[in-house]
Amino acid sequence: MKKNTLRKVLRYASRYNVLIVLSMLLAVVTALLSLYVPILAGRAIDFIAGRDNVDFKAVFAVIIRMIITILITSFAQWNMNKINNKITFRVVRDVRKDAFARLNKLPLSYLDSRQTGDIVSRVIADVDQFADGLLLGFSQLFTGVVTILGTLVFMFYLSFRIALVVVVLTPLSLFLARFIASRSFALFKEQSSARSEQTSFVDEMIGNLSVVKAFAHEDENLEVFDGINDRLEETSVKATFISSLTNPGTRFINNIVYAAVALFGAFACLSGAMTVGGLAIFLSYANQYTKPFNEISGVITELQNALACAERVFALIEEKSEDDGLKSEGNTFVAEGNVELEDVSFSYDKEKKLIENLSLNIKKDQRVAIVGPTGSGKTTLINLLMRFYETDSGSIRVDGTDIRDIHRSVLRSNIGMVLQETWLRSGTVRQNITLGREGFSDEQIIEAAKASHAHSFIKRLPNGYDTVISENAGNLSQGQKQLLCITRVMLHIPPMLILDEATSSIDTRTEIRIQKAFNRMMQGRTSFIVAHRLSTIREADVILVMKDGHIIEMGPHSELIAKKGFYYELYNAQ
After folding, report:
1. Over the stretch 544-553, which tens digit does the pLDDT of each residue have?
2. CA Rg, the chain, in Å?
3. pLDDT tops 90 at residue 75
4. In the structure, how many helices (H) and strands (E) does the chain have?
5. Residues 313, 381: one domain?
6. Which of 270, 287, 317 is at the close of a domain?
7. Are 304 and 185 within 8 A, CB to CB?
8. Do residues 496 and 416 lie in contact, with contact meaning Cβ atoms separated by under 8 Å?
9. 551 and 412 belong to one structural domain
10. Do 172 and 251 touch, CB atoms closer than 8 A?
11. Which range, of 87-91, 182-186, 236-240, 338-342, averages the lowest pLDDT?
12. What confidence score (pLDDT) does residue 43 get?
C-alpha cells in the first residue's frame, strides 16, 4: 500500500522534473562544498605544527578559502530550499486541485454516505500533513544521499580500514529506523482517521448549533467530543512516541561509530600513518556521514505520517466519478417534456427494497404532483429523474431517449429545480440569482424577482441587488432564501420543472401569489411537484400517490377524492 502511495506521489512530482534535477544539482554542489570545508580545516591544523611554529600566511589563506566556500555553499543551499518549496507546494496544489475536481464529479451516493467533515479533512488537513512530509523529504533526502556517497569516497581515500569500520557499523541505524517506521505507519494512519472524525463532529455541531442549544445538548456533545479528543490524543502520543525513538536510536549508533573512528584514528596518528589534521578531517567526515542517517531517519518518520495522509487523499481522488463518458460538446438535446419510466427498480440499501417495477408515462406539458407519507420514495423518484442516482434496473426515457444516453450536464440543463433545502453562495444577491452566468440584463433579473415576489424585500436590502450575503445567508430569513432560489428558476426557465416542497418556508399569503406565478411558469412545461401540503397541488393534471416505493393511486384531485382511498384519507387528515 505504501509503495503504491509513494508511486502516486512521485507521479505528481514528475511533472516538475526540471526543478527536481536543478534541486539535485544544487544538492550535489552543497554536499561537495560541505565536504571540502573539513579538508581546508585539516590543512589549517597541519599548518599549526607547534608552539612558535605556525605558518600564519598559509592559515589565513586557508581561512579565506573556507569563508568563500561557506558563502557559496549557503547560496546554493538557499536556492535549493527555495526550489524544494516550489516543488512541494506545486505538487500539493495539484493534489488539492484534483481532489476538489473529483469532488465535483462524485455521485451523490458517495457524498450522502460520508460525513462532510471527513471529506474536508482529507482535502485540507491531510494534504497539509502530506506537504510537511514531502517538503522535509525534498529538503533533506537529496543532500543526505549525496553527503553519504561523498564522505564514503573521501574516507576510503584517507584510510581504507577506518572507513570500513564506519561502513560496517552505520547500517545498524538504518535497520533500526526501518523497524520503527514500519510500526509507526499504522499509528499515523489511525491518527489521521481520528483527526478526520474530530473535524466531522465539529463541522456537524457548528452547522446545527441552534438545534443543539434548543435541545440543551451541549453537555452530551462535550462528552462525545472529549471521547474523540482523547482517542486522538492517545493515537497521536503513541505515533509520536514510537516515531521519536528513531532519532535517539540512530544517534546512539552513530556516536558509537564516531567513538570507533576516534579510537582507530588515534592509533593511526601514534603510528605515523595519519596526521592530526588528517584525523580531524576523518572525524569531521564521520560526523557528516552519520548526520544524514539521523536526518533520513527523521524524514522516514515524517514520510510515514505523510504517506498515511496521502493514502486518504488519493483514495478520494481515485473514487469512481459519475462521469458517464458522454461528451457534452455536440450533445444538444433539448427536451420537449415526455417522460416514461419502464419497470424501474431502485434502493439505497440493496438489502432493503424501495422502488420496485415502477412504470409511468408522463405526457408533455403535464403537471404531475407526487404525494405520499415520509419515506415513500417521492424524493428518490426525483433523484432518479435528475440522474443523481442510477436505477438498479429498468429505464427512464425523455422524449424516447434513455437518460443514460444523455450527458448529465445536458440532461440537467433541461430541468429547473427548486428544493426545500436552499443553497446560496457568498456573493451579491444578483450573483446568487444568475449563478454567476453572464448575459442577463437588470430588467430580466428584476422581472424574475417580481414574478417570485422577491423584488420587494431585495429593494429593502442595504444595496439592493448588489447586497453581499454571507455563505449561509445568515442576514436573510429562511423564506427570503427560498424566494431567491425560486427567482433563480424564474430567470432560467427550462423545458421541465421540479418543485420539491418549494414553498415550505414561505407564509401562506406569499405562497398563494407564488403558486400563481408557478402556474404561469408551468404552462407549456412538464412539471413535477413534490408536496406535503395537498392544498397546493389541487390544480395538478395528475397526482401520483406513493407508498413504500409504489404508486398506489393515480389521477386528478377530484377523481382521487371520489375514490375515497389513501389520497382521500391524506387530504382529509390535513
Report:
1. 888 887 888 8
2. 35
3. yes
4. 21, 14
5. no
6. 317
7. yes
8. yes
9. yes
10. no
11. 182-186
12. 79
Domain tally for the chain? Answer: 2
Q: CA-CA distance, 128 to 113, in Å (whole number)?
A: 25
Asked whether the beta carbons of 542 and 556 are under 8 A apart, the reply is yes
Residue 333 lies in a domain: no
Residue 132 lies in a domain: yes
Domain shared by 299 and 348, yes or no: no
- Let me know if residue 223 belongs to a domain: yes
Residue 330 lies in a domain: no
How many Cβ atoms are within 10 Å of 106's Cβ, its own excluded?
Answer: 17
Extended strands (E) in 414-475: 415-418, 427-428, 468-469
Q: Is 260 helix (H, G, I), strand (E, B) or coil?
A: helix
Place of cell 453537555: 219
Read off the pLDDT band of 413 (50, 70, 90): confident
Among residues 282, 317, 352, which one ends one of the domains?
317
Please, which pLDDT band fits residue 32 given cuts at 50, 70 and 90? confident
pLDDT (average), residues 28-48: 81
> In this structure, are strands 367-371 and 542-547 parallel, antiparallel, or unpaired?
parallel
Q: Is the pLDDT of residue 212 over 90?
A: no
Instruction: Say whether both 233 and 296 belong to one domain.
Output: yes
The CATH number linked to 260 is 1.20.1560.10
Model pLDDT, residue 72: 93
At 166-176, the pLDDT tens digits run 777 776 776 77
**Domain of residue 356, residue span:** 339-573
Grade residue 330 by pLDDT with cuts at 50, 70 and 90. Answer: very low
Scanning the structure block, which residue is given the C-alpha cell 423564506? 479
Grid cell, residue 550, equals 409504489
Contact yes or no for 332/346 (Cβ under 8 A): no
Per the CB < 8 A criterion, the answer to whether 150 and 31 are in contact is yes
Mark whether 50 and 186 lie in a shared domain: yes
Distance, in Å, from the CA atom of 542 to the CA atom of 528, rounded to the nearest integer, reads: 10
- CA neighbours closer than 13 Å in the CB half-sphere of residue 224: 13
d(CA 445, CA 255): 76
Task: Report in angstroms the alpha-carbon separations of 191 from 130, 186, 194, 240, 295.
Answer: 13, 9, 5, 10, 23
Q: What is the mean pLDDT of residues 324-336?
A: 64
Q: How many residues does the chain have?
A: 574
Question: Which residue from 231, 244, 220 is spatially nearest to 298, judged by alpha carbons?
Answer: 244
Give the per-residue pLDDT at 331: 61
Between 446 and 532, the more confident residue is 446
Instruction: Assess whether pLDDT exceeds 50 at residue 151.
Output: yes
Place of cell 444595496: 463
From residue 547, alpha-carbon distances to 373, 436, 459, 554 in Å are: 7, 40, 44, 12
Could you tell me if 357 and 311 lie in one domain? no
Contact by Cβ (8 Å): 26, 80: yes
Cβ–Cβ contacts within 10 Å for residue 512, how many?
Answer: 12
Half-sphere exposure of 279 (CA within 13 A, CB side): 18
Residues 349, 478 within the same domain = yes
Q: Are residues 244 and 374 in the same domain?
A: no
Alpha carbons 36 and 140: distance in angstroms, whole number: 19
| Rounded Cα distance, 339 and 403, in Å | 10
Q: Mean pLDDT over residues 341-347, rounded?
A: 87
